[in-house]
Amino acid sequence: MDSWYLLAETLFHYNPRHGRPSTESREAFEQTLMLDPEHHTALHHLANVAAREHETEEFIALTDRVLERYSDYWLATELQVLRAVVVEDVDAQRELMVTERVRRGGPRVVYDVAKHWQDLPGAQTLLETFVRPEQPAATRRNAFLARAALELSQGRWNAAKRQLESAEGIGSDSAIGWRALMAIASWLPVTEGELTEIREAVVRWEARANRPGQTYLLGELSARLGDRQAALQSAEELEHFEAVRGLGTVFQDMALALRARAAWVEGDAAGALAWLESATMDIAVHADANSLYGRPRGASKGQRD
To answer: Which of 166, 230, 246, 266 has its CA 20 to 30 A from that of 11?
Structure first.
């Protein structure tokens, strides 16, 4: 049973990084349930698969099984919120959003609405609960950052920036990193002036706890500005960071991504691919932020608003 479950988890979470649908995990999760019909995380994942396939009846049946049997399940609140959206129960949504469990869970309780049901406007509406003045500062910051990501996923760069500015306005240092990560998406219409301004902000950013991330972002921004040497310098710095337990060769892979980006800037597509293929770990570090945020569905280029 464990083998089927681990296979299912791997397909569900890692398939998208290979351009394959997470829904290919369905069979492995179903095999898990054949061997253990009460496997609550398998039930939960199958409910998410059904949501992604917009199989409403199956989603409701699976969700009800989880909620009836495991009311104290740590992801029960997320499931309840998603279920209320799927069945279009506006009253249930309102009631849930003022509960103590939702307050404790914060903005993450609505992520599945966007991630699995792909209702981006619906997720934006629900996040309004968490940006209200009476919410704790940390909750409001995270909600604004989440709203920025949702705006970007729809190609709305200016709208995303407004959300990031709101997060910065209540003391979010991480908003600088988010802004930089978003700006390196090649399909966004970011001006050279904006990129220069963002790179300068990243240079000033006191990212003590995430110095490697800061270095990576500087390299990506430099490459997008056409400064190949600065990108390669960032890659070299990453190669000298001491490995962190549990992260494997992530810093080395980030450096390879920058070397790939530098090669791409020079028009060397084969060289860029060679650098990427030499990465040791298969993680979400690529030479293009499209892989992190996804190109807006149906959009050939980003929008300014």
So the answer is: 246
